[in-house]
Structures are given as structure tokens and as C-alpha cells.
Design brief:
alpha+beta, 23 helices, 23% strand, globular
Length: 631
Amino acid sequence: MNNRLRCPGLTRHHKPALWPLVCIGLLLGWAADNQASAAVPGAPRLLPEQTMVYVRVENVKDFREDLAKSSVGRMLDDPKLRPMVSDLYLQASQLFEQIGSQFGISLDDLIDIPQGQLAVGVVAFDAQAANPDNGPRTESRDESPEAIRRRLAERRQESARFGLLVVIDSGERNETMDKILIQVEQLVLRSGAVERSEVIGGTQVRRWIAPSGSDTRLEYFQREGATVIGVGGPVATDALARWDGRGNGKSLAESTDFAAVMTRCVGAEDTRPQITFFADPYRLAKRLVLQGGVAAALGWQIAEELGVAKIRGIGASTFQGGDIFDDITHAHILIDAPRDGIFSVLRPKDGDTNPPKWVPEDVTSYTSIGWRFDATYDGVARIVDRFQGEDAFKRQVEDQFEQRFGIDFRDKIIGAIDDRAVITQWLQPPVTINSSVSITAVKLKDPVAAAATLQAVTDSMPDIRTEAIGVRKLYLAPVRGPAARPERPALRQPTPCAIIVDDWLLTGDSREFMERAIRANDGAMPRLSALPEYDILASELGAQLGGEKPFLLSFSRASEVLRQVYELAKSDQTRSTLQNRNDGVSRALGELLRRNELPPFDEFKKYFAPAGSFAYDEPGGIHFGRFTLKP
């Protein structure tokens, strides 16, 4: 998740003081030493039902042990790679000093903190309803329209606040954890906060509030070896109440949506998931809108009309280790029926997922998607017409296309697709930054009619040229953009092209890959469908599906993706570029590559096995899965 989540409950006055703690809390999930205390409740029982985002490592120690047994863990422990790994860890430790020096800790100290459960939750609450007894807010007596609007906006934001709850099983008398908390306390005090600590049910809750008494900036307590930290509201106090059985309302564990999503993410393994994730995107977006202005409210009204409330939750779980699989991930999107509005465009269709004859054996990835493109197209048209008037979509798309090419877009283009698409990738030599090429193909109902349509379209585009490859016609578009400039020889030269092969329309930006696809189709080179690795993965996929019919299936080789990174890392140009960058991370990485000679690629490749993904549709939502076989 690259998008940053803004927490309106954290004001601009105390964010700088608290974000180091938040960052440290997120980093703690990567290592630990001892078992979690059985006395500490699971985070879903401490979090309220109104938890918008939640992620949890059930036992960090077990997770670390399983990672060590994984292919990546074994690779990092390889004697031939150990010197480079040690050097890399040393560089990471030196970079961490920029953060750790504020708290007087090293990277090793940080790694030793968590000893069991680690969880982070974004919690929604009403600041007025929470009423932490921090004193009343002073209201302005100004009755001007501007002042009234300002007070209404403030009250609206108060009713839709966010807080952050971090649960770390750090063990009894963890000196490093205490050292961090002491430094954070000092940072919060320097930001102007006032301490208002108290003892609740025999547990001391340390709390710092804004000088006005209007909100809680930070609070935490330690109990049974666990450290529970709340940022931006009384979320830690609420967690303590739930721990003692005094909480108001349901916990996240008692939420029907949470249960419905997470029960679909347990997979077929006998063990419990090591990492779990849950998000309530609809309610999260709704609260964020309350923090916005009129434009956000208008946009949300449109989203409401489109039925976004049907998204009840998104969840995922990850398993590491096992006799057959290196890792397994399950994810589920819970969607209420019927799927109308914006969900009318979701029209997956199960069917054949086997690789077509034209997919070569050495592709880096292969994905087959069954989809009713005509139904999706009609759904988009209904949505556009709903907001822009009757036949608006037809005027904007179909009429414009027919005027330009003299072709009925709905009938000749959308109607020609036979409910299936395939995307496949290949690493085109020599390896460069953009040497990963792809072919996107759609299956055709009538290849002869589709060829006539393609010819009619290209006849209206004088820049398109054609070449004969055997009895087939390859359409080539002119190359535009930076990659076409001769002063950039390090980059691959794209060649946008298209061709009809049997009952498939293939499009891509690599003539070389297109030629390989034609050779595979004609039997002149091996095909993916005959690859033993693909057969093994497909058979294991059947066990994971449990009788469900997938609309999506993919096969990928992580080793080939790694090959591109490996070749680039060996390049003198890459090392020079990194060392000349202004940021410390790039320079350190460049220096690391300069000091360490990479072993042959086969030393890396042997630790990676194929991975597969699948998805199937069901009345209550869409389920996704991904797994990697053991090498």
C-alpha cells in the first residue's frame, strides 16, 4: 500500500513527535525471540468494531523461524552469499542510526523487542462521544457566517476522528521498549502536551493531552508483558477496558463483517495464518470524506449512488512454510448482492485457463482471465448515462469511433471478444531496465471477421505499416516517445505491434516476442503447456481450489524476475548511477555492489520455484489466492 493514510485524529502539532514511534512499531514485525504470552488477548479482541484498517503478526518469533526456512531465508544463509548479506546488514544498521540515535538504540536492539504478537489498527471514533474527561472545548462567541461554518466543520471532523493502536508483546521488563517510550514521552512533552496519567483497574495508563484539554495525543500502558500504545485519541484506554471486559460496544472479533471476511482467508492449511489483514474501505472512505470539504461530499454522494456501500470488507492472510509450499496467501473481497451500480462492471466468467499454443515455454509469467467484456462494457455505459444523460456513452464512444473508422464499436470490437484474455511476459535480451516485454491477447469469436475489422481500422491510420510473417500479417505502429531517441542506447527500443494467430488477437511492444509466440504456435519451439513445472503447479492449484472454478489463473517464475535485477546489479552503469545519487540509501547500495562480487546466477536461481495465483467468483464476493512451491 503505497498511498499514505492520513489520520485526522493526529493534529499537526504532535505528528512530528509521534511518527518515529509509529515507524518503529511498524518495523518491529520483522523479528522476535520468544513466544507470546497466553495472557495477552488477541488484537481483534482489543480493537473496537469500528476498526478501519488492521494488520497483525500472530507470533513474530514463529514467523521469523518460518522465514529462515523459506527459500529466501536459505538463500541469505548460503555460505557463498553470507559475506554480502552481512555487509548489507551492516549498511542497514548504519542507515538506521539516523532514527535510532534519537532513542539511543541500535537495529539489533529494535529486532529484539517483539516477543510474540504485533498488531497495528486504525480506529475510528467520535471525539465528542468518547469524552475522555479532558475538559470542555472553549467555543467562540463569534456568530458570523464564516465562524459558524468553521465551527460546523470542526464538529464534523470531531465526529469522524481516527486513532492508531499498536499492540506489541514486548515481554516483561524490556529495557529497549522502555527506553523508546521514555524518549517518546519527552518528544510529546516538548510539543506542548500535558501529562494526565491515571490508574485504571490496577493498570497505570500514561496519557498526554493537548493544552486545551480537547484531545488525547498519546497514551499507553504495559500489562502481562504487552505494551499497548494509542495515538490520536483514547484508543489505548478503550483497549484496556475491553481487556478487562468493560468495553462499550462490540470488538473487532465480534464484527460480522470481519468474521465473514476472515473465515474465507484461512485457506486449506492446518495451521493458523501468521499474518492477517483486514480493511473496511467503505466506512474508511466515508469518514475521510467528512474531513474534506464540499467537493469531497459531492463526490461521495456520487459514489453512494453507485453502490460502494456493498463493499463490506477486504481481508487477507499469509502462511509461511510447509512441506509443499514456500508460502500461501489468501484474500477475499466481501460484496453484497445484487451487483448493480458500479459492481455491474464486475463480470468474471470461469472457463478454460490452459495456456494457448502460442505461449512459449520460457515466459516469465502467464495469466489467463475469463471475463464477460460485453457485460462490463454495457455496465460502464449505464453508469455514464446515469450521470450524463441518455445515450451519453454512445455519443462519446460509439458515435465518435464510427465517425472516425466507419465501424460499429459495440458490435465489431466489443462483440468480437470471446470472454477471455491472456497476458504473458518475457525477459527480452539483453537485459535492460525496460527489457521485460508482454503480450496482451483476447480470444476472438470469428477470426476472419476480426481480421477484416483490424484491416479497416488500420487503413484509416496511414502511420501503420504491415509485414508478412509466413501467411500472417503483422501490424506495426510508429515508435514515439523518449525510448525512440538514439541518445538512449541503454534502453530497449519498443515496437508496438499486433497480429491475429488462429483465434487470438495478440498485441504487444516487442516484435521479437511476437515472433517467438508465432514459432511456439507453429510448434517450432517448446510451449508453456508442455513444461513440467507448469503441470506441477496446475495440479497443486486444483487442490487449493477445492472444487471451485477459477476465472483467473497465473503462473510466474520469480527466478526470471530476479534475473533482471541480477543483471542490472552486475552492470557498471547501475553501480555508477547509484553511487552518484544524492540520497544516502542509493550511495550505500552502490558501494555495497562495488565491494561484493555477485556469485553466478545459478546460486540464486536454485532457491526459487514457480508461483501461481487464482481467483474465483462466488455470491458473497471474490476470492484470490497465491502460492509458491518449494524449490
